[in-house]
Specification:
The complex is a heterodimer of chains A (279) and B (324). Chain A has 11 helices and no strands. Chain A is mainly alpha-helical. The relative contact order of chain B is 0.11. Classes of the chains: A mainly alpha (279), B mainly alpha (324). Chains A and B meet through helix 1, helix 3, helix 4, helix 5 and helix 6 of A and helix 3, helix 4, helix 6, helix 7 and helix 8 of B.
Chain lengths: 279, 324
């Protein structure tokens, strides 16, 4: 047993070194004075100051955040509905097809989704006149569509692990389906909805390929801006931007993880207290 | 909600006595509305923005490319469609090579992900208490940070002037005779770079399903086998490995399918002379404006991936049913 543990331990060390060395290297070089991104020329924070003065980057970041908030909200609403439909209604017309539709965007190569959505928007513009041009609306629709699948999967698994008898009890006590939905089901799946919203938000903020196909002139999101710059090579200002993004995300994920851990602990304590009180 | 609650806060005898007083709409609202709306809204959205685009892309793959705005045209006489795009797809070596390069890169990357990801997932699953959570968080963290920036981080590592490349160069030169020493390792813009970065970017997709699978395994089985005198390697081969096959399949599909259609990685670190198919689609679409040709390549790629995608969907379904 001892022998294999050593093997697993060394693979873990190698794996995490593989994960983190490129990111750490990128962070270190963001403090590089030299304009040549890969040659060390002394410590400097000038790239960070230049970044905050760059209106193009600030505008792109604002646009990305707006799209991410709106599409994550729509995706959470639609994804929650889809997850409920799959978890609670075992029989309706076209259920198998619907189930396939919900999980297919999770794994579909982004190029295919991107090209096909672009063609749809071209057709819609031509035959319905809406959306009039590609940009904010089309990107938001595209992001909502693929993010709702992630939300649906999270909600579905939460609902499947939840006790149906709570809902049945409320029904037996005379609640209308609407009341059961708002008073019982939604409060229980609220943490899963928050997790789904955060995931949808991050995916939207991160997407390059689908945005690249569905966006138009004047609607440059942050990843599209970075994509354009990065194609030309490694530069210290992108290193600085990347460092900020990595730090914000790490703090966000760490905080969310801690809050979820704490609420889970509190829930366990509440259940134990309720059980103890009943005895 | 506020409008409904006071009416229904207690039993309503008059309603129970007079069921006929309810109109059809009220009845629907009380009994089936939430069910119908919950199913219909996402269903309609997905048909509009997921199914309709596919019908359009299939139609587009049967159109002719023209130099006009928009750059396609359908025949005005029967049969209205043309198969010339698909004929070109199989006759022009550029496209076949694109598919082969994609499949080869994705296969090698999937195998490497499995080789590295399996022991990592096993190590995390066997870790104790808080350590397990911390290690899991460390796997998820790069997965939440920007995909583009992770590719970019490797561009910085692989460039011929970088500390990593110089370190690797001196390491290789130790083993080479003085006459044939190299100045740098030509890593960038090659399929090697593509595979390396695909492994780097998709490794969490391999580790997480494997971990979810390995975590549930009953470790007492291993101990029983060990008590009966089996060697650790034998226990692994006969107990752990067969039980983790669902995790292996899920992880491999989650890496292989998106990696085959990858666009960002081959565009940034790949070899422009031997591009993967995602890049070919993008170039046909954006640079050459051959929308019908790009659509035909995309449709064929989907046909190629339809079996693994269906397999993945089936597994998802079964996992959801298993949770019940």
């Amino acid at each position: 047993m001892r022998q294999r543990s050593t093997f697993l331990f060394s693979v873990l060390c190698f794996g995490f070194a593989f994960f983190y060395i490129p990111i750490i290297s990128m962070i270190v070089y963001s403090f590089n004075k030299s304009r040549l991104a890969t040659v060390w020329g002394g410590f400097s924070v000038e790239w960070y100051f230049k970044l905050f003065k760059n209106a193009q980057i600030i505008n792109a970041a604002t646009l990305s955040l707006e799209i991410a908030v709106i599409s994550a909200t729509f995706a959470t609403i639609l994804g929650t509905m889809a997850g409920m439909a799959l978890a609670r209604f075992s029989r309706f017309r076209g259920r198998t097809f619907f189930s396939g539709l919900v999980s297919a965007p999770l794994i579909m190569p982004e190029v295919i989704t991107g090209v096909s959505l672009l063609l749809l928007f071209v057709f819609m513009e031509r035959y319905f006149g809406w959306p009039a041009k590609r940009g904010f609306t089309t990107v938001t629709i595209a992001h909502t569509t693929f993010a709702l699948s992630y939300v649906a999967v999270i909600i579905q698994s939460r609902l499947l692990s939840m006790d149906v008898s709570l809902e049945e009890a409320a029904m037996d006590l005379g609640s209308k389906p609407w009341q059961v939905l708002f008073d019982v089901t939604l409060p229980i799946i609220a943490p899963a909805m928050i997790a789904g919203w955060l995931l949808a938000f991050t995916i939207s903020l991160d997407d390059v390929v689908i945005t690249n196909f569905t966006t138009g002139p004047g609607a440059t999101t942050l990843p599209i801006l970075i994509w354009g710059k990065v194609k030309l090579g490694v530069t210290p200002d992108i290193n600085a931007l990347a460092t900020i993004i990595v730090l914000v995300v790490s703090i966000g994920v760490g905080l969310a993880g801690y809050l979820m851990y704490r609420s889970e602990k509190k829930r366990e304590r509440d259940i134990q207290m309720a059980l103890a009180a009943n005895k | 909600m506020a409008g409904v609650a006071p009416q229904n806060s207690g039993p309503l005898p008059q309603e129970l006595e007079l069921p006929g007083g309810k109109t059809g709409f009220r009845n629907w609202l009380d009994r089936n509305a939430w069910r119908d709306i919950i199913i219909a809204v996402p269903y309609i959205w997905l048909i509009l923005f997921f199914v309709a685009p596919f019908i359009i892309i299939i139609a587009m793959s049967l159109a002719q490319s023209v130099i006009a705005q928009p750059p396609f045209r359908f025949d005005e006489t029967w049969p209205y469609v043309t198969f010339e795009n698909f004929e070109r797809l199989f006759s022009d070596y550029v496209y076949l090579r694109g598919y082969l390069t994609s499949l080869r890169n994705a296969l090698i990357a999937t195998a490497l992900c499995l080789l590295l990801g399996y022991p990592m997932a096993l190590g995390i699953a066997r870790a104790k208490g808080v350590w397990r959570n911390i290690l899991l968080l460390l796997v998820i963290l790069p997965f939440w940070t920007s995909f583009l920036l992770r590719v970019y981080a490797w561009m910085g590592m692989m460039g011929s002037n970088s500390w990593f490349n110089r370190g690797l160069t001196s390491l290789i030169n130790v083993f080479l005779p003085a006459a044939s020493e190299i100045n740098s390792v030509p890593m960038m813009n090659s399929n090697f770079a593509v595979i390396l970065v695909v492994v780097y970017s998709y490794l969490p997709f391999m580790i997480l399903p494997l971990f979810a699978n390995l975590e549930k395994l009953d470790f007492t089985l291993n101990e029983a086998a060990m008590d009966l005198g089996s060697k650790p390697m034998t226990v692994f081969r006969d107990v752990t490995l067969p039980l983790s096959i669902p995790g292996i399949v899920a992880g491999c599909l989650l890496v292989f399918i998106p990696a085959t259609g990858e666009l960002v990685i081959p565009s940034l670190v790949g070899n422009a002379g031997d591009p993967m198919i995602g890049r070919v689609i993008n170039d046909e679409f954006s640079l050459n404006r051959h929308w019908p040709m790009a659509s035909a390549i995309a449709v064929a790629l989907l046909m190629l991936l339809v079996v693994p995608i269906m397999l993945y969907n089936r597994m998802q379904e079964r996992a959801a049913e298993g949770a019940k």
